Amino acid sequence: MKSLRKIVLLFILFFICNVNTFAKANKTYDKLKLAKEAMEIIQLYYFEEINPEDLGDGIIGGLIGILDDGYSNYFKENNEVYNLLEGYYVGLGLSFEVQNNRLVVTAPILGTPAYKAGILPEDMIIKIDGKSTEGMSHSEAVSLMRGKAGKKLSLQL
Question: pTM value?
Answer without folding.
Answer: 0.46
